[in-house]
């Protein structure tokens, strides 16, 4: 899945740290990973429920309800600060 942050007329894709392993799962900082779901049920509209809480903070780090999205090598980020992620 490709996620991007936007603010006004600027859009930029989010990136994991360059040292992160290709295919590594992104998780919320401090929260243990659950089992992966192969296919999300479209009728549940999970992404639509989550995306409203995805934003970049004052440092450009991707967050969900203020909790950073991270890999084992560090946070997912971009240059857009205080942007909406979609």
Give the helices and strands, then pairings.
Blueprint: E1 4-7, E2 10-13, E3 27-28, H1 46-51, E4 54-56, E5 62-64, E6 67-71, E7 74-75, E8 84-85
Antiparallel strand pairs: 1-2, 1-8, 3-6, 4-5, 5-6, 6-7
Fill in the keyword field for this structure.
single chain, 86 residues, mainly beta, OB fold (Dihydrolipoamide Acetyltransferase, E2P), three-stranded antiparallel beta sheet, 1 helix, globular, Tyrosine-tRNA_ligase_regulator, NA-bd_OB-fold
Give unreliable regions as ranges. none
Morphology call = globular
**Fraction of residues in helix:** under 10%
Reported by name, the CATH topology is: OB fold (Dihydrolipoamide Acetyltransferase, E2P)
Cα gyration radius (Å): 13 Å
- The helix/strand series, from N terminus to C terminus, equals EEEHEEEEE
The tally of strands reads 8
Q: What CATH architecture do you see?
A: Beta Barrel
Structure classification: mainly beta
Would you state the CATH class? Answer: Mainly Beta
For this structure, what is the CATH homologous superfamily? Answer: Nucleic acid-binding proteins
């Amino acid at each position: 899945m490709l996620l991007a942050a936007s603010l006004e007329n600027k859009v930029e894709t989010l990136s994991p740290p360059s040292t992160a392993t290709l295919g590594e799962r992104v998780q919320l900082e401090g929260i243990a990973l659950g089992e992966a779901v192969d296919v999300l049920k479209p009728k549940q509209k999970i992404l639509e429920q989550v995306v409203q809480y995805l934003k970049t903070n004052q440092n450009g780090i991707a967050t969900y309800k203020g909790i950073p999205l991270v890999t084992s090598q560090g946070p997912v980020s971009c240059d857009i600060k205080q942007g909406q992620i979609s």
